[in-house]
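Homework help board

Subject: predicted structure for assignment chain

Our instructor gave us this sequence and asked us to write out the predicted structure in token form, then describe one feature. I got the tokens but I'm not sure how to describe them. Can anyone check?
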Amino acid sequence: MALLIAQELLLVAYREDGTAHGKGTELDMALGGALLVELALSGNVELAEKDVVAAGQRPVPAHPELAGALTAIATKPRRPKSWVQRLAKGARRRLLDDLVARNVLTEEGYRRLGVLPARRYPAVDPGPRQAIEARLRAVVIDGADPDERTAALASMLAAAGLERRVFPRDDRKLVKRRLKEIAEGDWAADAVRKAIRAAHAATMAAVSAANSAAASGS
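My token output:
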């Protein structure tokens, strides 16, 4: 079974030592957005007026994370932002567990700051992450035309604020401009493109809302 877009995002979000890069809230919301985008790409969901609804014409996805998400969406249409937030809950741990079960990552315990127990997820083989980063570099830095999945991944990478993780030595303004071009590009059919753009905007809004809530609570 191929990796989900959300799992590809996880692989590039985690450093070589198995710890996550950047803010956890941004990554979690981007994972919710990536799951929604994947369902849109497969034709399982679409945008009806302002709500995300189950399309009903396609087979149920094989991956349990997508199947569960589709079942939830079929029960009640909601705005994209609401689904991004709902799909994000617990997704990171489940997706990481799946990557460990598939021998893509390994799970290790360690003591963060010498006190708090934590988990890290080093790659069993760096090859898959390097291949994903090479695809992203080809479309973002070299200007190649993206396929649907790479464009969707690039869009979620920007939403999670992970561009510096993948392109640490490249011109930041150029990277951001290219990621914006990809997010707004015509690389998918019209109905799918609308759903994906809505998911991207919803992810950005969900990240902003979560960061605002964290700031007000601190």
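Reply (TA_rk): Your tokens look well-formed. For the description, you could write something like this. The longest strand covers residues 108-112. That's the kind of observation they're looking for.
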